[in-house]
Amino acid sequence: MSKITGQKSIFSVSQNFLTSRKLIEKLLHKTNISKNDMVLEIGAGKGHITKALVQMSKEVIAYEIDKKLYDNLVKKLIPNTKLIYGDFIKSNLPETAYKVFSNIPFSRTTDIMRKFTVANNPPTDMWLVMEKGAAKRFCGLPNENLNSLLIKPFFETKIIYHFQKEDFHPAPKVEIVLLEIIQKQIPDIMLSQRSDYHLFLTHSIKNGLFGSKALLTKNQITTALRLAELPQIKQNGQILYIQWLCLFRCWLKFTRCK
Length: 258
Fold this sequence. Notes:
Blueprint (H helix, E strand, L loop, with lengths): L1 E4 L11 E2 L2 H8 L9 E5 L5 H9 L2 E6 L2 H10 L4 E5 L13 E5 L5 H9 L7 E7 H8 L6 H6 L3 E8 L5 E2 L6 E8 L10 H14 L10 H10 L13 H17 L1
Helix pairs in contact: 1-2, 7-9, 8-9
């Protein structure tokens, strides 16, 4: 096992550990991880998931920010594993293809998701253990939000497993699920349009699609949705992802024509 030592951390991130080998193997069999894959794990903890990942993949890159846990992992000498001590958020992502399977620290969920989903070389597939509420937001449930809308042009998201609280040590106070995030082979927008898409969404969510600060006129919105054979938007109604996508493309067209 190769070891890369990172900058010393003066804190540790609390985590609820999965220790049942049977359950971990059950979860991994819900993925498409194979012997050809490099897999990243954030928050390796006591190494239970790490050991199972090694059996299914070509190589595991495991991050651990807690010095005591890291030192214990080093002693276990898990084969085909690159163990990295330090803050994953500050690390560089691989330049080659990779997947992610991790029981992430719940307090870092948003930062971890953002790092992966805005990366120039994002993972092809991810399976992240996280709080149910956070997973639903990333899926756009019950309604679309900025986080879900930013992810959906590039990834398919789905909750594929619901845990029992007793599956973890210590048991969490909230419901936990396994979120699957699969990269779309053909994204809904080009990567070069991502910053424009972010601008359109943040402005429209803050100021509304209708009104004096809106980026599109009411007539442009009505026409764009009608031509795309999509339902019209009520001013106080929920807006579907496909409607947002249609209006972004409309705005981009009019913006570039100016």
